[in-house]
Amino acid sequence: MIHVVIGTKAQLIKMAPILYYLQQRNIPYNYISTGQHKEKIDDILANFGLRQPDYALCEADDITSIQKMMTWSVKIIWRTIRKKKEIFRGDKEGIVLVHG
Predict the structure, then answer these.
(1) How many other C-beta atoms are found inside a 10 Å radius of the C-beta of residue 99?
(2) CATH classification of 2-98 is 3.40.50.2000, yes or no?
(3) pTM assigned to the model
């Protein structure tokens, strides 16, 4: 399984052609969103004709301050450790694809 982790709108724009390729060829992938730019990412997904994430690590407003970033970071780390089997669907041999 290919696990694609995307957080920011810039990452999604750069990864959109890859997601589109996988989607058009029916190659299974697990799209994991970190939830950094939720509102903007929904628009970008719609514009590229891409599906919603399979798993969202955090459903929050856009991060606009250092305090929100700190809170978000702790939540993401905690949820990833606590729910890694659910997030990665129990896959121990897959590929994790991230931008940057």
Answers:
(1) 15
(2) yes
(3) 0.87
Amino acid letter, 47:
N
b/e code 47-63 from CB counts within 10 Å (16+ = b): eeebeebebbbbeeeeb
CA distance 32 to 5: 5
Q: What's the CA gap between 32 and 8, in Å, rounded?
A: 12
Instruction: State the DSSP code for 86.
Output: H
Share in percent of the chain as helix, strand, coil (round to 5): 50, 15, 35
Ordered by start, the domain boundaries in the chain are 2-98
Residue 96: both structure tokens together? 């994790």
pLDDT mean for each 10 residues of the chain (100 residues)? 94 96 97 84 93 88 82 90 93 92
